[in-house]
Amino acid sequence: MKLKSLALAVAAASALAGAAPAFAQAKEQFIPVLSYRTGAYAPNGTPWANGYVDYLKLVNARGGINGVKLSFEECETGYDTARSVECYERLKGKGGGASLVQPLSTGATFAITEKAPIDKIPVVTVGYGRSESADGTVFKWNFPIAGTYWVAADAIIQAIAKKEGGLDKLKGKKIALIYHDSPYGKEPIPLLQERAKMHGFDLQLLPVTAPGVEQKATWLQVRQARPDYVLLWGWGVMNSTALKEAQATGYAREKMYGVWWAGAEPDVKDVGDGAKGYNAVTMQHGAEPQSKLVKDVVSMLHDKNQGTGPKEEVGQVLYMRGAMSAMLGVEGIRAAQERFGKGKVMTGEQVRWGLENLNLTQAKLDGLGFAGVMRPISTSCTDHMGAAWARIHTWDGKAWKFTSDWLQADEQIIKPLVKSTAAKYAAEKKLTARTPADCQS
Amino acid sequence: MFYRENGQFKTSYRADQQVFPILQDRVAIGLVLIFAFAVVPFLASDYLMRAILIPFVIISLAALGVNVLVGYCGQISLGSGAFMAVGAYGAYNFFVRFPGLPLIPALILGGLCATLFGILFGLPSLRVKGLYLAVATLAAQFFSDWMFLRIKWFTLDTPSGSVSVSNLQVFGWPIESAASKYLLCLVVLVVVAVLTKNLVRGAIGREWMAIRDMDVAAAVIGIRPMYAKLSAFAVSSFIIGVAGALWAFVYLGAWEPAAFSVDQSFRLLFMVIIGGLGSITGAFFGAAFITVLPIVLNQALPVIAGWFGAQISTVGIAHAELMIFGGLIVWFLIVEPHGLAKLWSTGKQKLRLWPFPH
Predict the structure, then answer these.
(1) Which three-class secondary structure string do you get for B29-78?
(2) Inside any domain, residue B65
(3) pTM for the whole structure
(4) CATH of domain A29-148+287-388+419-439
(5) A interface mutation test: which of B176, B252, B311, B343 has the most A CBs within 10 A?
(6) What average pLDDT does the segment B286-312 reach?
(7) Cα distance from B251 to chain A (closest Cα, Å)?
(8) Interface contact B303-A421, CB threshold 8 A
(9) Contact B296/A107, CB-based, under 8 Å?
(10) One GO MF term, please (chain B) (predicted)?
(11) Which of B132, B163, B216, B238 could form a disulfide with B111 if both were Cys (CB 3.0 to 4.6 A apart)?
(12) Between A and B, how many CB-CB pairs are < 8 A?
């Protein structure tokens, strides 16, 4: 090759590397958006990201947080942990410093959990991440607001018990957990084992290798063991594959319960009628096309061609999850402003305080357009989760419909489990639990 | 002109056998080292160090290890990700199970675990070669995936199967800031690179290359194939193991087996092929090409689109990144099938005659 053209190429490349993307303006609250719109998990990652970004835009359209506008930048992770860490490092210092980060992947949550305390950036994991991080005395910077996998698992067991006519009826039953073989899929196991011990049901663990397309062997085991119920802890393509396999195996979809990441439209759309009767636990909300929030998004953004993603997907399950995740982060910033000065840009540490002192009453939720979508949430220094409510919704072939009342995860089981697991983490890391004085800071 | 060696006469064997026999090379390498050690930590931003330089340095180390095996000994391996994983989990187990064990010995012990693992999975190389061996080493990859997902002992029974480390320090010096992490990885890289360079120049390296070029002929002249192949597996997996431990400890902090998936093995193999088989510098070029270029593209594309007044979506960037990256791989391999290192040495050759080429 000609040396001259090589030299040119190198010069061009270095010029590109030097050109830093434009920085956001000052006096804006910066929020990094880690999302995945490509790769094996894109069908599920995209609606979440659309909801998340739309909500941030909506806050700006409504005039910001007490006048402080939000700025944000998206970074594509492809659900890859190393790439997520790169995105986190890229965005954490932008726009005067990231207010909070939502990694949207359990693997990335684990990696960023180790970095956030040093960078002083709160890690908000709405409905995912590590379950024991609900203990704020050990995990100062983690906020699994509104639910963890233990809440999801507990709610499912309760729903099954209700169907059977009481928790004591679970004795001798066989419940299989088909899970994504990663930290994400393994999260519910400790709780399920605890419940199995309490009620005497038989828990079968059936792992599926990521991304989850290959499930033939797993469903052969299901066919063999004939479990009374199947819990599905999948994400992305794994969910629809599982439903198709269930159909092929002849396993009743009515007896299948998915986690909230296995209960959205992309999971069942392709299976259509084959998924009829399939249940999934919700993280408070389901598909909410009638909510005020959705109407606001449509009228203030999509009707003005400023929306993100297709208009008809606004209000679907994962879209709502994204919007709710963004809302909880934004409300954390608002709570921080109430203490540290309204109309000011908050630092990561101040936002952390705000997230720890969230008090979303019904009136506030109604004002934000979340009426009927979710229940009030209040967090504290010790409790970074704030609420443990869930519902079950069922796919009727065309849409998700709620089929249960509100279920609250049993604190008596979750609390000791959170405490002991968090204590183990603290011991490993040689962390001391936070003092009451630290709670006020 | 730049590489004219007029007047550089060697008067002793020592001088003739130097790693860098040309004065200009010695000066250049010295300057690069000074720059990397003394200038970069002060100039580079936190992001540049944490998200680009540290992964680049660690992956270079891994690529170096792969190059020993694939480039110098000719044993194609698709198990590099597994060797990294064994190094990472090995170091983790030593680090956590023996309180008070310093970081450096833990890294070395992790490397030694990978060595044993590598020798074990190198045994098929005594019977099969080439693509067949690649498939055989793929077994190492699947075995390690299975092992670290299923055998709870390795992850200390953590419910989620994800492990993490913290409070790293070397000789009482905390490895927390970006600069300290970068310098630690760089020191390891430089030490290993110097040792490897000497190893491949020495008797062992010559045995490896003889095996690579024609194993039957090598056996005829008295090289023991078993010893040569297994030693290549041992050295290579030790280096890859140390790199894996650094990747887990220093870069990620918390990890799961997916961090060392089969993708990582493929990427490492591509790195040595694109960088240049059988070349130490090739490992660096390859690592830069595969790890840094996508990130540069990812950040440069919106800027370039901005120059033309165009807006490009996140998905658009991600797809364009893949397309351009794939295109570049093809282009480079067509232009120079022997890799970027060969390109560099061709450039050097031209600089020698510049400005009077013939």
Answers:
(1) HHHHHHHHHHHHHHHCCHHHHHHHHHHHHHHHHHHHHHHHHHHHCCCCCC
(2) yes
(3) 0.89
(4) 3.40.50.2300
(5) B252
(6) 89
(7) 8
(8) no
(9) no
(10) branched-chain amino acid transmembrane transporter activity
(11) B238
(12) 120
